[in-house]
Amino acid sequence: MEGNRKILIGTSGYSYDDWVGPVYPPQTPKSDFLHLYASEFPIVELNFSYYAQPRAQALQRMIDTTPEGFLFALKAHRSMTHEIGEGWEKEIETFRQGLQPLVDAKRLAAVLLQFPYSFGYSPESRTRLSTLCARLEGLPLAVEFRKSDWLQDRVYEGLRERNVALVSVDEPDLPKLLRPSTVTTGTFGYLRFHGRNKEEWWTGDNASRYNYLYSPAEMGEWADRIRTIMQRVPMLLLFFNNHWRGNAAKNAREMRLLLQQAGIT
Fold this sequence. Notes:
By secondary structure, this protein is an alpha/beta fold. Helix content is 36%, strand content 17%. The protein is globular and about 50 Å long.
């Protein structure tokens, strides 16, 4: 790309037992996963922070394990996006405190606010999103909606006013899910590939739902869209979430080559 524009390609998560063999050498201990991952990819999207609040000490160890310049995107804890309770605003502060080492080390690429399908476009939901963005002000934020009724100009303008990136996705072609988009609302782009496993999307678990391997032709459909996005932002974060048996890493490698051949990165 021209100037300082860049695309950072990685995967959603790295610590999967079924990656030993397809991604990591046989018998690789779990303690070596991140080091090996960071020797090939420049960024990772961390998912564990959705299930448990991030701890500063643990993130500092991850910083120490990876080379200078390696970046992290961190998914917001479920208490902030999915399981909203009375103390949810306190949970936001706990989250901010936990990720501080990434901020201090300049290793935080983004905080991902991924909302569930049940988070529809409503006055209550808009208020909750606004409050969450305000409480996380100063951090690089990206928002992923799962229901297509959020994709409208009023929402785009609100995100732009708050300098929050709208996440574009590749996912199954099912009613009310998001279609491919090149809309940008923040200072960076954010793209997630979830796979196109229609059969398992609503009924599968967190493994089988993402059991999908993109073909080169399917990834090639995104070349012009990515080119368009990169004309609008200086940086694009691109993650593959189809983690089943190392498919995400395989597709990330293939996408990197595809974009290089297309002269996009």
